[in-house]
Amino acid sequence: MTNHWNDIQHADVILCIGSNPAENHPISFKYVERAMDNGATLISVDPRYTRTSSKSDLYAQLRPGTDIAFIGGLINHVLQGNLIQRDYVVDYTNASFIIDDGYDFNEGIFSGYTAETFSYAKDSWKYRTDQEGKALRDPTLQDPRCVYQLLKKHYSRYTPEMVCEITGTAIQDYMAVARVFCATGRPDKAATIMYAMGTTQHTYGTQNVRSYAMLQLLLGNIGIAGGGINALRGEANVQGSTDYALLYHILPGYLPVPDFNHVDFATYLDQATPKSNDPDSANWWSNLPKYATSLLKAYWGEHATADNNYGYDYLAKKSGNYSFIKLMERLQAGGFEGLFCMGTNPVVGGPDANAIAGGLDQLKWMVAADLWETETSIFWKRPGVDPKTIATEVFLLPAASSVEKQGSISNSGRWVQWRYQAVEPPGEAESDAFIVDQMFKRIKALYEKGGVFPEPIVNLSWNYGKGHEPDIEKVARECNGQFTRDVEIKGTLYKKGQQVPSFAFLRDDGSTLAGNWLYCGSYPEAGNMMQRRGLEDPTGLEMYHNWAWCWPVNRRILYNRASVDPGGKPLNPKKTVIAWNALSKKWEGDVPDGPWAPMNEAGGKHPFIMLPEGFGRLFAAGLADGPMPEHYEPMESPVSNMMSRQQTNPAVAVLGKLCNSDKFPYVGTTYRVSEHWQAGAMTRNLPWLVELVPDMFVEISEQLADWKGLKNGDMVTVSTDRGSIEARALVTSRIKPLRVSGRMIEQVGLPWHFGYAGLAKGGSANVLTMAVGCANTTIPEYKAFLCNIEKGGKLA
Amino acid sequence: MSSRKDFTKDKAFLIDMTKCTGCRGCQVACKQWNQLDAEKTEFFSGEGYQNPPAMSEKTFTRIKFRDYQKNGQNEFAFYKEMCMHCNEPACASVCPVGAFEKTAEGPVIYKADRCIGCRFCMIACPFGIPKYEWSKAFPLVKKCTGCYSRVKEGMKPACATTCPTAISYGPRDEMIKEAERRLTDYPDRYIHKVYGKDQAGGTSVIYLTSLPFDELGFKPVTMRPLPGYTWQALRLVPAAFLTVGGGLSAISWINHRKDRLKQEREEAEAAQQPNETKED
Amino acid sequence: MTAARYVVNEIKGYHRFVKFLIALVAIAAVASLARFVFGLGPTTNLNDTYPWGLWISFDVVTAVPLAAGAFTLGAIVHCFHIKKLEPLVRPAIVTGFLGYSLVCIGLVLDLGQPHKGWHVLRYWNPHSPMFEVSMCVMAYTTVLFLEFLSPVAEKFGWHVPMRVLRWLEMPLVILAAAISTLHQSSLGTFFLIVVDKLHNLWYNPLLPLLFWVSAICAGMCIIILEATASHKWMGQPNEGVLLRTLAKVLPWTLGLYIGLRTFSLLALVEGPFFDRPGLTIAFFLEFGVGFVLPCIMFTQKSVREDDRRRAIAASLVIFGLVLNRFNVSMIGMMNPRHIYLPSIIETLVTLGIIAAHILFFVLIAKYFPIFEHHPETVDYTIPDSFHKLDGGPSVEVKAASHGG
Ligand SMILES: Nc1nc2c(c(=O)[nH]1)N[C@H]1C(S)=C(S)[C@@H](COP(=O)(O)OP(=O)(O)OC[C@H]3O[C@@H](n4cnc5c(=O)[nH]c(N)nc54)[C@H](O)[C@@H]3O)O[C@H]1N2
Ligand SMILES: Nc1nc2c(c(=O)[nH]1)N[C@H]1C(S)=C(S)[C@@H](COP(=O)(O)OP(=O)(O)OC[C@H]3O[C@@H](n4cnc5c(=O)[nH]c(N)nc54)[C@H](O)[C@@H]3O)O[C@H]1N2
Ligand code: SF4
Ligand code: SF4
Ligand code: SF4
Ligand code: SF4
Ligand code: SF4
Ligand SMILES: [Mo]
Question: Could you list the residue range(s) of the whole structural domain that residue B250 is in?
Answer without folding.
Answer: 236-272
